[in-house]
Amino acid sequence: MKVTVLTGGVGGAKLVLGLTAILPPETITAIVNTGDDFVHLGLPVSPDIDTLLYTLAGKSDLERGWGRGGETWSFMAALKELGGPAWFNLGDGDLALHVMRLAAFARGEPLSQVTAAFARAWGIGASILPMSDDPVATLVDTDAGRLTFQDYFVGRQCAPRLQAVTFDGAAAARPGPGVLASIAEAEIILIAPSNPWLSVDPLLAVPGLREALIEATAPVVAVSPLIAGQAVKGPTAKLMAELGLPLTNASIAAHYTGLIDGLLIDSGDGAEGVDVPVARTATLMRTLDDRARVARAALDFAGALAS
Amino acid sequence: MKVTVLTGGVGGAKLVLGLTAILPPETITAIVNTGDDFVHLGLPVSPDIDTLLYTLAGKSDLERGWGRGGETWSFMAALKELGGPAWFNLGDGDLALHVMRLAAFARGEPLSQVTAAFARAWGIGASILPMSDDPVATLVDTDAGRLTFQDYFVGRQCAPRLQAVTFDGAAAARPGPGVLASIAEAEIILIAPSNPWLSVDPLLAVPGLREALIEATAPVVAVSPLIAGQAVKGPTAKLMAELGLPLTNASIAAHYTGLIDGLLIDSGDGAEGVDVPVARTATLMRTLDDRARVARAALDFAGALAS
Q1: Closest in B77, B92, B122 to A75, CB measured
Q2: CATH 3.40.50.10680 correct for A3-57+125-157+160-306
Q3: A145 interfaces chain B, CB cutoff of 8 Å
Q4: Model's pTM, two decimal places?
Q5: How far apart, in Å, are the Cα atoms of B271 and each of B45, B193, B261?
Q6: ipTM of this model?
Q7: Under an 8 A CB cutoff, do B121 and A82 touch?
Q8: I want to staple A48 with a disulfide (CB 3.0 to 4.6 A). Which of A9, A42, B4, B84 is the partner?
Q9: Does position B158 have pLDDT exceeding 80, yes or no?
Q10: Helix residue spans in B157-248 (DSSP H)
């Protein structure tokens, strides 16, 4: 059974890791948001791609919630000594990814190729596909002006009030190699519990991707990022409030109208106003068992929708 | 008293450090070889400039003989995991220099400007001037073919037999900001005990630099890199043998014919065939006291030549 997951970073990576616990990894494809990608100090950084890589390679830092486990920070210390920018943390080991990517780009290799090489080097069986090899930049219009994603998310900790989100470059971006095929050939398609507006919308803004989802023969199940009207992590709830949206699963389902065949929500949550079939499980993913359970629930739900 | 030193990396940095122990640092200018500079994995690396920076900032690793003290190596470990090239070691803290330089180059800042910013950040009083802001690449013709300097020096540990040295780009390179003025205005000019063929010749290949030395009013004293017919460190002796040159101070003096007014040699060494005045001191620089003594001997000798 081939499963394709549309995903952002941390939350989505947990679901994909859960899938690898119950399916042969070769059957899993993650199509990953690259709207957060940016060039920092000349280095190309792909936060969501790297989170997937670290998570699936078993190298992620589980306590900190981002980056590499066992990381050291000599680079940042030296950077600060030299008066360099300290707002974005780059761990010493993490730098290897960005520097290798810099070298690959200089050789003319696209992001998809260097990502596949990293996954191979680390023995990752699942396919990690950038949504596009073309640059797409998520920009947020806020009461502090238009900000790049990392300035908003890391630099300002999502404090500015969000008004709109745009995906610069998306109109000209082509889906990455294998992206449309993995949607067309999937037997189940999942949308990870990533932020729908900041982490999933960039994928849907790549021309052809939304259409491919609509035309896909596979059932499409989204996992709601809300639990009891709050997001587990990140700015989803704050952002929904600022966009004037009720903090309900109905808002999530409405956001994905026409795209999803079902919404997997938390056991304790209501489904009022949700216009697609609903299934429930405890969607909080703390342990690997949690991740596998949510993944299993999503697959079972999708299977039931298909039959 | 203004002192200008033409220098390569480790050996030259010791002499410059010795000067800072006996003169106000603001009176010292080091004009540094950039022929070893190269782009590694997309990062601009300036080995000799960085050695001067680390040495004068008191951050160099004295035991290893290159790089930063207290360095960590997480980047290299991660790079090897990913199948990246392991032949050139980049320490985690050291990476800050190369990444900051990458970012500065992307902003259009020249090497001289970013070098000065690093020196300021670390409180270095002496001026560290790249010989040129234009790229010059030292290439060595060997029995293993034409090699880049780092491939020859680091990658192959100077094993190939050297036939000739060329400085690619030198003909079009302009002296860096302040370089010619620091030679014209100096009251004493020193040539550090760096490798004359690999580390000092690149400077002399930059159009205008040799002429400035010849026209300078200050006495020019070279410190011989030979002690008892051997080099303290590096491939100088091997290279001289391969070029068919006797391992004598006469060969060093002949190499600098028309440029130097005196040669400072080791206490135990002869001066047969040296066609300029000679002074002697123990030129081996193990301790800071050694460095200050050699610097003092070079200054005193130059002073005597001028009077």
Answers
A1: B92
A2: yes
A3: no
A4: 0.93
A5: 38, 16, 14
A6: 0.92
A7: yes
A8: A9
A9: yes
A10: 179-185, 201-205, 209-215, 236-242
